[in-house]
Amino acid sequence: MPNPIACLLIIGNEVLSGRTRDANLQFLATRLGELGIPLREVRVIPDVPETIIATVNEVRAKHDHVFTTGGIGPTHDDITSECIAAAFGVPWAVHEETRAIMAADYARRDPPVEMNAARLRMATLPLGAVPIRCAMTSAPGFSMGNVHVMAGVPRIMQSMFDALAPSLTGGVPVVSRAVHAIGVFEGNIAEPLEAIQKRYPDLDVGSYPFYRPGPAGSTGFPGGGVALVSKGVSLADVEAATAAITEMLVKMGATPIQGEPG
Amino acid sequence: MPNPIACLLIIGNEVLSGRTRDANLQFLATRLGELGIPLREVRVIPDVPETIIATVNEVRAKHDHVFTTGGIGPTHDDITSECIAAAFGVPWAVHEETRAIMAADYARRDPPVEMNAARLRMATLPLGAVPIRCAMTSAPGFSMGNVHVMAGVPRIMQSMFDALAPSLTGGVPVVSRAVHAIGVFEGNIAEPLEAIQKRYPDLDVGSYPFYRPGPAGSTGFPGGGVALVSKGVSLADVEAATAAITEMLVKMGATPIQGEPG
Q: Which of A14, A177, A187, B122 has a Cα at 20 to 30 A from B247?
């Protein structure tokens, strides 16, 4: 059975304007790979209801899981939750258990926090949603069908994902091995590398150049090289491809470095 | 006339797997905002021909400009250029001027670099494409219609964008002003902030909580606060909204900090 696949929707004008640098994609990509739910697509979309609703409905039909980040706070630009309700065609209604949990949390604070209309929005969920409760905040994320809605603030998102992960049905974990070689140009290895990719069609064999700054005034890429990465669900194939890449580099007179370079 | 809008396609398995953290989105979002070509959508997609072709054709019809990063190197996983040709239904053919420029560059190197089949791929462009030449490399990006194809390596992408930018027809620059307030919770300002947003419907008024780590063992958000950002093409409106936000914070007894906090 093939692995389930996932899409991430990053919702927020602040990412599209460049004000905020997204810090959630890499975390989720890595964690989902480990769970055997590889990320196949990411979209960053603005705080526009029609766009959110249409995008959610498009991607939830195409992927086994959809994860969203952003837009579930108390302010007017936090519209993800009501848009998910609209996408599923269900009412957006106060979730009584959540309201009670949040009210108790707010009452315990010193000074106590008021459960006002803005905060009540965070206890309002699409009908049928299952809250994702985490240690960082009493305002929950939630799962609605295959759509998992989380906060945009990285440490809250991570806490919500930790709470959600055990309930996700994963697949075979994706494993990868990297070989680095300093002073090797991609243009010199393209042909033998492609032959290795063809020998292991179920793997992703990728080539990623890297550069380290050289002394001032130098030209070219004095500390440049390539990272050659084999990735897939078969550890045996990944290790065999890594051995073939290592052999290819040795034949060229390069010095392969297994794993990430120091 | 409304501003032209843009979409960014980040092409590459390495971003979707979490191996590489994208560093191009924020640069392009900021620079495009300054040019009055706001980014409306970003997609991260894998190195899969059908996906690249279908996505390019979908987004180039919906946006004034499409920018792509990644997949224009010499290795087998660099398939962006041939996919753009397929998307436009034109041949993918050696661009003679580019081949000559690259060959001359390679011949000048010490030791000389061979113009092999893999490197010739980087001189192969969709028929009708206009090369984007930059100072970092003789292998170009290119513009094909409203699709601007750039490298994934950030410093090369930035050099290509610098070369491309003067030829882009921009709009009115997007300006923004931020007010920060320590110790203010979003839940306490949601209502008056929404009123300010409604008074300036052409602006984006956004609220972004931030947290600074507190002493070990502390609870809550000891250094927490909110950034309140007004953004739009009318500087007068942005300044008026910023003044209204400042007044709102003073009324609550908070201390507004203009601009980014130190």
A: A14
